[in-house]
Specification:
Elements: H1 12-21, H2 26-29, H3 31-42, E1 53-57, H4 63-71, E2 76-81, H5 84-89, E3 101-104, E4 117-123, H6 132-142, E5 143-154, H7 160-167, H8 181-190, E6 193-207, H9 210-219, H10 236-247, E7 255-268
Parallel strand pairs: 1-2, 1-4, 2-3, 4-5
Antiparallel strand pairs: 5-7, 6-7
Helix pairs in contact: 3-4, 6-8, 7-10
Length: 293
């Protein structure tokens, strides 16, 4: 008998369909995503690395790919996304002498050879993946030794106001289960990364109404894809109850929506050296120390 599917499992087909549908509206709706992307790029200022190949994982419509191509003018940038329609829109970010490649692929099964990249950059993609261990293992596989992973995701406090409002209506899953910063750090270590640096920032976004929040989520492709979601249309009465519950959190004329943004940064390490008979371990001198620039 097969094991039951976790109610929070995210079906890649559903995720892809949501982002395909939002490909023409995401740039206008995902203003907050753009701000977080800019902050993640700013953090590269303190990184000593001259990458030859950069993977923008979860590239969407290509804004980060363009920014990375500008920052590292001699690097090859590969934009990877689950949604082919998002990647089609990313063509608008291409410029004559600053072009980037586009590849449609699932982050759980990257269509790249081992050890081809010096950096993997990923903004707000990981929360759409059900198995972070597998995603980190794939990222580690495609990174060269001493390669860098830098990413953002959403932590468990995100959209807590919306989760609370829905909990008074029914028992379906309406808001995804976002993974804690410490659990992501542990997953990085299991995948073979060293020196993971994790921190969080809390943002409070305000809206004039619940409908404005829901419209932004829909427009950015951030719709509910959890296995435990309600199938079919949500009734008018249920939505009205959500509005009523959310209204109890109105302050100074606006409704708050919390985002717990997780920032992660880690280096790929050499594979474990083979142990010789008698307990001796041989480590080439070239593997001692990290080359970051």
């Amino acid at each position: 008998m097969p094991a039951p599917i976790d109610e929070f499992f995210l079906d890649p087909k559903v995720v892809r369909a949501s982002f395909d549908a939002a490909s023409t509206t995401v740039d206008a709706a995902a203003v907050v995503h753009g701000e977080i992307r800019a902050r993640l790029i700013e953090r590269l200022d303190v990184v000593r690395l001259t990458p030859s190949v950069i993977v923008d994982l979860g590239a969407g419509t290509g804004h980060a790919s363009r920014a990375l191509r500008d920052r590292y003018s001699s690097a090859q940038v590969v934009a990877i996304d689950l949604s082919t329609r998002m990647l089609q829109r990313a063509s608008k970010q291409q410029r004559l002498f600053r072009r980037f490649d586009r590849v449609a692929a699932d982050a759980h099964r990257l269509a790249l050879k081992d050890g081809v990249a010096d950096m993997v950059f990923s903004n707000l993609m990981l929360q759409w993946c059900s198995d972070p261990d597998l995603v980190f293992a794939e990222i580690r596989r495609v990174l060269r030794p001493d390669g860098l992973l830098t990413f953002t995701s959403l932590g468990p406090d995100s959209l807590r106001e919306l989760r609370t409002a829905w909990s008074s209506v029914d028992n379906y899953t309406h808001v995804h289960r976002f993974i804690d910063m410490h659990d992501l750090g542990d997953a990085l270590m299991r995948a073979g990364f060293s020196e993971p640096v994790m921190d969080t920032q809390r943002l409070t976004i305000t809206y004039r109404s619940v409908d404005a929040l829901l419209q932004e989520l829909r427009g950015s492709g951030s719709e509910n894809a959890a296995h435990g979601r309600r199938r079919g249309l949500t009734g008018r009465r249920a939505l009205e109850r959500v509005r009523e519950e959310y209204e109890t959190q109105r302050r100074d004329g606006v409704l708050p929506a919390t985002l717990e943004v997780v920032y992660g940064h880690a280096w790929a390490i050499e594979r474990q050296p083979r142990r010789k008979e008698g307990g001796e371990v041989r480590v080439p001198v070239a593997q001692l120390g990290r080359r970051k620039g």
